[in-house]
Write a structure and sequence with these properties.
The complex is a heterodimer of chains A (270) and B (988). With 270 residues, chain A is α/β, with parallel strands linked by helices. Chain A is 26% helix and 23% strand. In chain A, helix 3 (70-79) crosses helix 5. The two termini of chain B are 45 Å apart. Classes of the chains: A alpha/beta (270), B alpha+beta (988).
Chain lengths: 270, 988
């Protein structure tokens, strides 16, 4: 069975600001994209059921007041919890980029249940956080990333990709060693900061001090993906910070694969 | 009942903020602070249903990040708690009346939990200092790092809050009392006093014109009428200097000549645009921003504003609201453009000034810089508008008056250029609420700063709420695309008075003044107790005014309520030609629009310019070692890397950036200009650059203007732009124009703008002036050096042909295009000797045009591997930057550099800042084709050939090796050393 047209919902609210380029990326990969304000979901004017992929793009939702992503995380948890469970129950996909990742983590959606016991519970609490960069500053810089695990989102990604980060609160901290070990064991770590050659990074290669250099994780199924770097900002080749130095000039950049993976997965599996 | 919640990091979680503050104390010279912990405080006040159970839920589910933080809460029962003896606590909160943008989000977050019983929240931040710190050092830390008393205070006893709902002075219910000002019988002295006490900044002539107008009416003005006139006639809003008459005396060939200038703006800047006559100029000097053609469906608009006075007093808030303001200019252009990038240029005093040498009442330049950069970062990043271009200029005379230029570029659909207002249209106020913020901002920025400014003008200082503006932007674009309103303008300086007045004056189809009827009671307020005149002139941020036809109003308001943005009809446009305001049923203003907008008396200002006495220093040693000097110049504040600042700005959001502000193999080299392709998927793009150089102006403002224009244009050329599609903006920041010498140099700069723009065939499309940038204390006045910022925007047909400045490949040839002259005047080189010099760089527009066009053609043919312009620091700095950004070495031969004039020597060739010069990297296989392009331009043009020469090669060996004019080896530095010298100064 395959779907005719892959439907993507890019959710926005006060302070969302990477919605346009994220929608562009999915559209270019062949999806039909709906930009929807969260109020439209609350009012029932837009229904999650009509979509295959839910995207929370980057931004500063509600000003990141209190903590980044916190207020939107509560909205998802408290007002859309059952809709989201139903959405995921249908084997559908979710991706949270930058602020979207912060939202997923703070809503307890990522990393999600880490073992069978937790899986049986209907909800999990917050297992990790994304907190202030060690540098104490917002920084926009490009980072080398190693992809690992076997999430559908990172299939076929080049072994080392170059993507920009732009955040002040991107330091990944798991609750404890148990959580970290489970993430490793389950293959839930999808992206790690690294040096250009793939080695162990120091600042600024690891731009925020993330534990175990973690830049992105998935849930146990690999269908929910959260990452601090912005693949939509390296969707086109000419977005690369030194494309004028590079010989191989393709049309797409190294982040495009991630969006294509999502769309292809829906086509094949839903 | 008030509850206090404390949120602090768990043990073992790194406190980045506390760590940063500890470092700041060391920078202040205080060594006794061992550690700083930061505790977030939320004070919550609820009604009688607010229970401890609710509070615990709020703490657990909203306030605390359970992974990284712990919480504690206390009931405020009026009893003080004893201090923690092991540390020094300092708690900082916003002053009453200063809006904290986070409070709205917090209350929303609480309501999302289903808790309705919380009425108010006030945040504070508690800093715990550990170490044997002296009380006087704690005071220094409090005042220099933690707080600015204009907006914040130290909470003396946090346990004694009685209520958080409102503040005592806003609790008073206003009963109507009309206030007339007795002008009829006022003497000249009294008129002056009325202007001064009311902070009206109106001069005697203007006061007399007002007196006459009201005598004719047989009544006195209300306070509101007088305020409205003062705001409309302020320098900030009316630009009296640029639009008035000037008697300009100047010295030429030893004689003093006199010239009468009517309207400096029209006779220089706008005249240039008129003569250049570009068909792609869509709307110039008319709307909130200049509009030019861009693509099949879109125009692009560009505006640069200044926010100098507020930034001097409260750097974060000043810069923050400066960015917010210029974004609203873009939103208010045509029927609303979508902002796609920002630019920010600052002028500060250099940092190594000791606090003791600062004039009283001024902030330390480093603090100003940190605050300004944070303010820009906060607003631009949160709005999701990339900050792609900028510059920072350092000069000691900016100590009392830092300059903060904020620019924004927007895309405007082609069918949304024209505004229309008709009688009967509703006046709709959208966005944030109105408070007592920024009262007198427009008039305040039309006077000089004094050491008392921070006391009397504190109402002019605000902090912005970028999320409010983002929400408003989203709704406005949606409403625009559904054609639900017919005109829009921003509420900037002068508030509603300025916005509504302007709309009525200039956008009626017949060109006649419409009238206005506004019920001030309808304006949504942040708190009760505002007087009617305060409502009318308040400069509260994040507000716009729309004109909407009655049949569209319902649909319009629905869009805004759908996304939680307030939109309120506050009145209508009428056919009366009068400005009529009402409050609680009483008329509080009834002014003739004609008098308001055209009644200002014309005055003649005196201007005088004579060349300063400068000398050519005789310090040329014909040096044989350029290494040390080059490193010194690379480390000069005006040359060194600004990466620390650029990184804090999101310069890539919206996905349009093609050439970023930082380029090269490590993405840390200085790009000449930024290139964006804002219609994602299309290769049509634009380049943004700027030119600014205050030292040239100290020798001759005419050539400063010419050089700034040359620099802005050549930076666009340097990334692949085309002179035929470049537009300029001017921003003049000058001292007090009532002083003839200040105005004289302003006139001369404006003349330089005219000549050069016409010479290059490049139009101005918008501009702004900010005058009275002087700081007076103890009778002594410090004026800023007359500062002209030229911003440039170039349309680029195909961004995939863009080039960058980093060297690409060993073996390639390095060309110098353009002549070098003995022009060290105002150079960084002479500045390192503490001298200014005499021979300021000139501009030869005929040769410059040929050079620009030849380089453009070579880029378009794909013959250029890297391209960099020579500006501050000359050839030496340019080649060093190319080398370390590309990671390759260079061999350079100064004897090959095209040079005109006597005194040929290594220093001049290496460090002169002559205009219209480029360094170009070309592959050897393209040498012939490249040179043919350069020669071909000679055949087309009438003037002499484009001067060029191969002056070096790109080398594998990572060193910059320089051979002097007589073939001697006079420089050899590893590029890593040069890079370090360039990166070190601002690496704090």
């Amino acid at each position: 069975m395959s779907v005719q047209k892959v439907a993507v919902i890019v959710l926005r609210t006060a302070g969302t600001n990477c919605d346009g380029e994220t929608a562009f990326a999915f559209e270019r990969c062949g999806a039909r994209v709906r930009l929807a304000h969260i109020h439209q979901l609350f009012l029932g004017k837009v229904c999650l059921d009509d979509f295959h992929i839910l995207v929370i793009p980057g931004g500063f939702t509600y000003g990141d007041d209190i903590a980044s992503g916190k207020i939107l995380a509560n909205e998802l948890r408290l007002r859309l919890g059952s809709d989201l469970r139903q959405f995921l129950g249908g084997g559908k996909l979710m991706i949270g980029i930058c602020n979207g990742f912060q939202v997923f983590v703070k809503a307890g959606i990522l990393p999600g249940p880490l073992d069978e016991g937790e899986q049986k519970k209907r909800t999990t609490g917050q297992q990790a956080t994304l907190t202030n960069n060690d540098s104490g500053k917002f920084e926009d810089r490009w980072c080398y990333l190693k992809s690992e695990g076997n999430s559908i989102w990172t299939q076929g990604l080049e072994p080392i990709v170059y993507l920009p980060v732009a955040h002040g609160e991107g330091k990944f901290v798991p609750r404890d060693d148990h959580v970290l070990n489970q993430l490793r064991r389950n293959g839930q770590i999808a992206l790690r900061y690294c040096t250009k050659e793939g080695g162990k990074p120091a600042y600024p290669q690891n731009p925020n001090g993330s534990v175990d250099d973690i830049a992105g994780i998935t849930d146990q199924t690999g269908r929910i993906f959260g990452l601090m770097p912005h693949p939509e900002r390296h969707f086109l080749f000419i977005q690369h910070p030194f494309w004028t130095r590079l010989k191989a000039k393709g049309h797409y950049g190294q982040g495009a694969r991630i969006f294509q993976n999502g769309v292809d997965y829906v086509r094949k599996n839903l | 009942m008030i509850w206090r919640v404390e949120i602090r990091n768990k043990a073992g979680i790194f406190d980045a903020q506390g760590h940063g503050i500890q470092k700041d104390t060391v920078d202040l010279g205080i060594q006794s602070v061992h550690q700083v912990d930061v505790v977030e405080i939320y004070n919550l006040e609820g009604d009688r249903f607010f229970s401890e159970e609710d509070l615990v839920r709020i703490c657990r589910e909203l306030f605390v990040d359970s992974i990284a933080q712990d919480y504690a809460y206390f009931k405020l029962d009026g009893l003080s708690r004893s201090d923690n003896p092991v540390c020094h606590p300092i708690e900082i909160a916003y002053n009453a009346g200063v809006m904290d943008p986070a409070e709205e989000s917090i209350l929303k977050g609480i309501r999302d939990l289903g808790i309705q019983s919380v009425q108010a929240v006030r945040r504070a931040r508690l800093y715990l200092f550990y170490g044997p710190i002296l009380p006087k050092d704690l005071d220094i830390i409090t005042n220099k790092i933690l707080s600015n008393k204009l907006i914040q205070h130290v909470v003396p006893d946090p346990w004694r809050y009685k209520t958080l709902v409102g503040t005592p002075d806003t609790q008073i219910q206003q009963t109507f009392k009309a206030l007339d000002i007795d002008l009829a019988h006022a003497s000249d002295q009294q008129l002056k006093a009325i202007s001064r006490h009311g902070q009206l900044f109106l001069n005697l002539n203007e006061m007399k014109a007002i007196q006459k107008y009201f005598c004719r009416l047989g009544r006195n003005p209300t306070d509101c009428e007088l305020e409205t006139i003062a705001q409309t006639w302020s320098e900030h809003c009316y630009h009296k200097t640029f639009r008035g008459d000037i008697r300009y005396r100047y010295q030429e060939n030893g004689k003093t000549k006199t010239k009468r200038i009517q309207n400096l703006l029209k006779s220089t800047i706008m005249k240039a645009t008129h003569e250049v006559n570009k068909p792609w100029c869509v709307s110039v000097f008319h709307d909130n921003a200049g509009v030019i053609r861009f693509s099949k469906n879109m125009h692009v608009c560009f505006k640069v504003e200044t926010h100098n006075h507020p930034s001097a007093l409260e750097p974060f808030g000043g810069a923050n609201t400066g960015v917010g303001g210029v974004i609203r200019d873009i939103l208010g252009t045509g029927l609303g453009a979508k902002p796609i990038c920002n630019t920010d240029i600052f002028c500060f005093a250099p940092h190594p000034m000791s606090s003791a040498s600062l004039p009283p009442g001024t902030l330390h330049p480093q603090r100003i810089m940190k605050g300004v950069v944070s303010g820009v970062r906060d607003y631009g990043n949160k709005m999701g508008i990339p900050t792609v271009n900028g510059a920072i200029v350092f000069d000691e005379r900016f100590v009392g008056n830092p300059l903060v230029f904020c620019g924004s570029v927007g895309l405007l659909p082609k069918d949304k250029v024209r505004k229309k207002v008709r009688k009967g249209d509703w006046i709709v106020l959208v966005g944030g609420r109105t408070g007592r913020d920024g009262i007198h901002g427009a008039t305040f920025s039309s006077g000089e700063l004094t050491q008392e400014s921070e006391i009397v003008s504190c109402g002019a200082v605000q902090i912005g709420d970028p999320i409010q503006e983002k929400k408003m932007l989203d709704c406005l674009i949606a409403a625009r695309d559904k054609n639900l309103y017919t005109a829009i303008t921003d509420c900037g300086a002068g508030g509603l008075s300025s916005a509504v007045g302007e709309m009525a004056a200039r956008t009626s189809p017949e060109g006649k003044d419409l009238g206005v009827h506004v019920d001030l009671d309808n304006v949504p307020l942040k708190y009760q107790g505002l007087r009617y005149d305060e409502i009318w002139i308040s400069e509260s941020q994040e507000r716009m005014v729309l004109a909407a036809p009655p049949n569209k109003i319902k649909a319009l308001l629905e869009i805004f309520t759908g996304e939680n943005v307030e939109a309120t009809a506050i009145g209508t446009f009428t056919a009366s030609g009068r400005l009529e305001l009402f409050f609680q049923g009483h008329q509080v203003c009834n002014l003739d629009m004609g008098f308001l907008h055209r009644g200002i008396p014309r005055i003649t200002k005196e201007a005088f310019w004579q060349p300063p006495k400068t000398t050519t220093p005789s310090l040329f040693s014909k040096t044989t070692d350029l290494n040390a000097k080059l490193k010194e110049i690379l480390g000069h504040y005006n040359v060194c890397s600004k990466e620390r600042v650029i990184r804090q700005y999101d310069h890539e959001v919206q996905g349009a950036s093609v050439i970023k502000p930082l380029v090269g193999m490590h993405a840390d080299g200085p790009s000449d200009a930024s290139v964006l392709a804002p219609e994602l998927g299309s290769v049509k793009g634009m380049a943004i650059a700027n030119g600014i150089n205050v030292r040239y102006g100290m020798i001759d403002p005419f050539w400063m203007a010419a050089s700034c224009i040359d620099e802005a244009i050549r930076q666009i050329i340097a990334v692949g732009g085309d002179r035929r599609f470049i537009a300029l903006l001017d921003n003049f920041c000058w001292g007090n124009p009532d002083k003839p010498d200040r105005l004289g140099s302003l006139v001369r700069a404006a003349q330089g703008c005219y000549k050069t723009a016409v010479g290059y065939g490049v139009p101005f499309i918008s501009g702004k002036d900010s005058l009275y940038n002087e700081y007076t204390h103890d009778g002594e006045s410090i004026a800023i050096p007359g500062t002209l910022l030229i911003s440039a925007i170039g349309i680029i047909a195909d961004v995939t042909k863009a080039v960058t400045m980093d060297l690409k490949e060993p073996g390639n040839l390095i060309y110098m295009i353009g002549n070098t002259y003995n022009e060290l005047g105002g150079s960084i080189y002479l500045d390192t000797y503490g001298t200014l010099g005499h021979h300021v760089p000139h501009v030869d527009v005929r040769q410059g045009s040929q050079i620009f066009d030849a380089v453009t053609k070579a880029v378009q043919k794909g013959l250029v591997r890297s391209l960099h312009d020579c500006s501050e620091g000359g050839l030496g700095v340019a080649i060093a930057e190319m080398a370390f950004s590309g990671g390759w070495g260079v061999t350079l031969r100064l004897d090959q550099v095209p040079y005109k004039g006597k005194d040929r020597c290594n220093d001049i060739i290496f460090f002169a800042e002559s205009n219209s010069r480029f360094l170009v990297e070309v592959e050897p296989r393209n040498q012939k084709r490249f040179e043919r392009v350069l020669c071909a331009s000679h055949a087309i043009g009438r003037a002499g050939a484009v001067p060029y020469a191969v002056i070096g090669t790109v080398e594998q060996q990572p060193s910059l090796v320089v051979y002097g004019d007589r073939g001697e080896r006079c420089g050899d530095s590893p590029i890593e050393d040069l890079k370090q010298a360039w990166q070190r100064p601002l690496a704090w």
